[in-house]
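As practice, study what follows.
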Amino acid sequence: MIPDDAVPVPSEPRLVYECVDPSLGCVNPYDTQVSADITFSVLYTATLSTSFLDPVSGQYTNVLTVNPPDLHVHVDAGYMTNGSAKITTSYSDGADQSTTLLPQVIRQDLTGNRLTDINPLGYALTNTSPDSMSATPVMSLVGSTTNGSITAGILVDLTDTVTVSGSLAPALPPQVKGRLIPQAAAVVVPTMRPAAAFAAADQGTPTVAVFNGASVRIRKMSSGVLSVADVNATTANNAGTGGTNPSSGQQHVRTFHRSGTAWVIDEDRSVSDESTADGHRHTEHVLSYSNVHWKRNRSQDSLRLAARPSRDWMPLPPESATGTGAFASVAHGPFSAPKGPSALIACDDQCVGGSVPTGPSPLGSGAPCINDVAWTINSSNATVNLLYQHGFASAATTWCQMSDYVRAKFVVGYELRHSLTWRNSYEDQAADLAGRLQADVAGTQTGVPRTGPYVLVGHSNGGIVNRYMAQNLSDPSTILGVVSVSSPHAGAYLANIGQGVLTGALAVPLASAEFGCSVAGAYVCSRSGTLTASLLAAIAPILADNTVPVLQEMGTNAPFHNTINARGDATYRVAGVQNQIWNRWTLWRVLGDYQQCVPQPYIPCDDYSRRYVNAVDKTYHQYIDCSVITGLFGFIWAPSWSASIGCAKNAGTLVAIDYAYRHLSVGSGSGDGVVPLSSQYFPGAPATSQYLVPDSDSHLGETKSQLTAGGIVRALNQTMNVPIAQ
């Protein structure tokens, strides 16, 4: 049958195979095949104009270096019986057991022109979410694989001939149960073959060659080793300094070694430098090849060569047909790209992990969702009175969703929520709260006394404010207990870091990457804008002004923590709720909760941040796959040089930013994206009163999270001895 995604090329031959037995996978086992193990390495260094307290070393420095663990990729490539490539890519970083709510990619299958993400159980992650990949899919850069050469980029065979003939078409072996249908016998001979240029360079003569529009310089490094560099790239490590516009340098070099009559790739390395007024950033992305195995069917390869157009055989992304987009400036072949959607479909998952169950109805009507409220929920048979305290850069309304969750489990008598001036010191906020609590108990403001005792539930800095107030309150009988939720009892690293440091360390918005937001995928760019802008919008209050009084007490090196922890909490019960997110794509979890959970309306947000994480995880793997696939096709497709380095750069940018933000926010440990897990433990509380919420939501979404609600419910029931009503 003729595949739907075949691209007709008038007056040039095209091979079509008919698959009559799909149970065999429609793969020709006698055709050309190649396999390899690839290691993807990233090194990212930001040299900043401002020093900061490094969370890992504990020393002041102006250099941030992150070197994420290598990603190991195994690739098997062959041909379907319809002439399209079939490429299976398996990753070493899949199936993280620390999370059960996030679908993860451990393998990607490119079958024909359809890319499918495979989860650890072997099931395809299908696209059922309409906004899950709203931007141009990453893999549209690859285009159609029909009649492509899977060995062209990693294997240059010196015995390749430059003359082909349609008469070389063989009959498929009977085991394949298919038949070859020759459509034409015209011969297309490229003006220059890679083998000839490699042979010239091997003789000691550096050669500048143009392969289908891609200019490369081939030179001999040592005996049996050649380097192939992109002539159009600027020199890295030679970027300017200062100024408002970044100056950049690029290098892209592939290294080959001689193996018999073939040159086999060893390494595909790119180096990127950019400087701005706030510092210099250096990034290296390396694809190292090993265990490269291949077998050649020269007759079939010759037919594929004859069936390709004389220049670009892979259709460009749809936007290039109108002269805009990533490849607008790339010279391409004698035919136009398809005007419709790209032939390559990126399968996505439905991104619904961690959705919030409806649960039972609250016991009693809730207080209005306003900034200051002292309310009676149940006038009789109450089992607990609650005071909720908000954290940094927040207000009392952040608890509106959580109070519904809690009231579904307990018979709440009185509920207090007050908004404090969160910039003030802990001492001033605690004094303010103490005055309000005393007024609520006495009824001086409302005319209705609401006597205690109260369990104080505080999120983030609110837990510290509650604790300090309880330690210093003149009437301790008002306090039954204190429950802290992700509170920085030992401080937060981010409080040590100013806006300039974070901006400088993470100032690699995806718009500056090789292809930018046009191919970055859903939540990476199109939903969030540039990364830096979204980050600063999400947590700018923490970083905007280090002179804010509470920030001076919140840092990990501040003496305030020694004071409050030494005083202890002897007169009331204490419990700590710790939230621990999947220690990957941390920044996007924070961004997801900021985008969907902070503004009105107050909706359950467990689902939304996971959509961001799911999207960026698949986008990352698709960038790797894009780089690997375009690297396989190599010299026969002009934009393959740009696509390979661009996709590798975007993948490296994602993982570098992920590790850089994680380094600055939680150091070498884990946490909730803002407060390290080690700092969330309530000092002095026994292990039985520490309630870990694994696979939780990020710091910005916890007060609306059903998962965090479970930790609060356990703390109230097991440590505060509040009976569950239903």
In short: The first strand starts at residue 16 and ends at 19. The radius of gyration is 30 Å. The mean pLDDT is 75.
